[in-house]
Structure formats: C-alpha cells, structure tokens
Amino acid sequence: MIGRIAGRIEYKGLDSVLIDVRGVGYVVHCSDRTLAGLPGVGEAVALWTDLLVREDLLQLFGFPTMVEKEWHRLLMSVQGVGAKASLAILGTLGPDGVSRAIALGDWNAVKAAKGIGPKTAQRVVIELKDKAPTVMAMGAAGQSTPSLDDFDVIEPASPKPKAAPAAKPNASAQAEALSALGNLGYAPGEAAGAVAQAAGDDPEADTAALIRAALKLLAPKG
C-alpha cells in the first residue's frame, strides 16, 4: 500500500498531478480543491495517498491532510459513492465542510457536489453520522499536511524528555472537542457549556466521545 508520496511536480492535469519520486512518475488523482492548492510545476510536494486496486485498474488518490484521506475512505464505503463522487464531495465542501454537513445532518450541503443526488446525499449523512466525531477528533488533534522532511531525513534518536506533570483527566480531549465544535460553527459559550457537561458526565471520555455527547446536547430539542 502506498500511503504517502513526496517528490517534484512534473505535470498538472484537470483531475490529476504527475509527481516524480526519484525518477519514477506517479499519477495521483486529486479533488479540484486539492489541485488548486498544490504548488507549481517543478516544485516539491507531499501528499497522503490512497491506492484503489481493481482487476484492471490501479489508481492513486492524493490528499493534503490525513483527515481528508480518512473522509475519502469513509465516503467510499457508502453505497453509490465511488472515488469520483468522493472527490467531488471533498472538492466542494473540503474536509471541515464534510464534517460539518454530516455531523449536523445537512444532506443538502452534500447534494451540492457535482453528480450527487438527494438519495445519495441522504445515505452519506445517515451512514456516516456516527463516525463523524472520530474524524473530527483527528482534525482537532492536529493531523495535518505531511512534511517533506518526513520522507528523506532520518533523525538520530534523542534522549526522551522527562515526563510532564499529569494533566487533568481528559483536559486535552476537552480542548480538542471545543476546537471541533468551533469548526462546526457553534458559539464558544454554547460549545464550552456542552463540552463541560459531557466531560462531567464522563470524566474519562476521549475526544470523539466528548464531541458525540456534546452534539447530542446541542441538538435542537423537540
């Protein structure tokens, strides 16, 4: 499995980019949004990748963040959503937009992607709603763009620093949950209240569990 690629851009097409990795060229398919954010021809680039394997086809798909790659994997698990449809959704909404639409049940936002009908959009929201908090937690925890240094440089092992004093139970999880809810558009006050209540109900909850519980508390009543 090819999970990441780093090299030099040799060519940019309408839906893909050719990346030269030490003399070997890889065609990597990307969403419109990702292609627009890539550097120019001749410049270095690093992408997370997902390899699609079929009897008569091998295709690489590239993503600037691990969160976007994970959403692609989950979108592809929904019946009726292939690689092209997944890239259309991610290209239209971006990973944060996908998280927001699915967590809030906004299938109309998903339907705005090219080639996505209402039934498919509703299926995406229904099937992935319970998984949204886990992916949102990945983003809040700082899963980001792969560094070019990750691929070519191996640093010597350094002495481990002394352990820091233990933090309050799930303090970092609360901060990450607040960040995720902020990305969904919730006001700081209401998000903080919901997270605090969720943390009080379950002091050992991780980030995904806090997000899930807070979303239930923030959901419209009645």
UniProtKB/TrEMBL annotation:
What SUPFAM superfamilies does the record tag this protein with?
DNA helicase RuvA subunit, C-terminal domain, Nucleic acid-binding proteins, RuvA domain 2-like
Tree of life domain:
Bacteria
Q: Chief subcellular site? A: cytoplasm
All copies of domain DNA helicase Holliday junction RuvA type, residue ranges: 1-62
What keyword terms does UniProt attach to this protein? Cytoplasm, DNA damage, DNA recombination, DNA repair, DNA-binding
Q: Where is the Holliday junction DNA helicase RuvA C-terminal domain?
A: 173-219
Q: Where in the cell is it found?
A: Cytoplasm
List the Pfam families.
HHH_5, RuvA_C, RuvA_N
State whether keyword Aminoacyl-tRNA synthetase applies: no
Q: Which InterPro entries does the UniProt entry name for this protein?
A: DNA_helicase_Holl-junc_RuvA_I, NA-bd_OB-fold, RuvA, RuvA_2-like, RuvA_C, RuvA_C_sf
**Region (Domain I) spans which residues?**
1-64
Region span, Domain III: 171-222
The family line of this record is: Belongs to the RuvA family.
The annotated subunit structure for this chain is: Homotetramer. Forms an RuvA(8)-RuvB(12)-Holliday junction (HJ) complex. HJ DNA is sandwiched between 2 RuvA tetramers; dsDNA enters through RuvA and exits via RuvB. An RuvB hexamer assembles on each DNA strand where it exits the tetramer. Each RuvB hexamer is contacted by two RuvA subunits (via domain III) on 2 adjacent RuvB subunits; this complex drives branch migration. In the full resolvosome a probable DNA-RuvA(4)-RuvB(12)-RuvC(2) complex forms which resolves the HJ.
Its biological function?
A: The RuvA-RuvB-RuvC complex processes Holliday junction (HJ) DNA during genetic recombination and DNA repair, while the RuvA-RuvB complex plays an important role in the rescue of blocked DNA replication forks via replication fork reversal (RFR). RuvA specifically binds to HJ cruciform DNA, conferring on it an open structure. The RuvB hexamer acts as an ATP-dependent pump, pulling dsDNA into and through the RuvAB complex. HJ branch migration allows RuvC to scan DNA until it finds its consensus sequence, where it cleaves and resolves the cruciform DNA.
- Free-text comment about domains: Has three domains with a flexible linker between the domains II and III and assumes an 'L' shape. Domain III is highly mobile and contacts RuvB.
> What is the protein name for this chain?
Holliday junction branch migration complex subunit RuvA
Say which species the protein is native to: Tropicibacter oceani
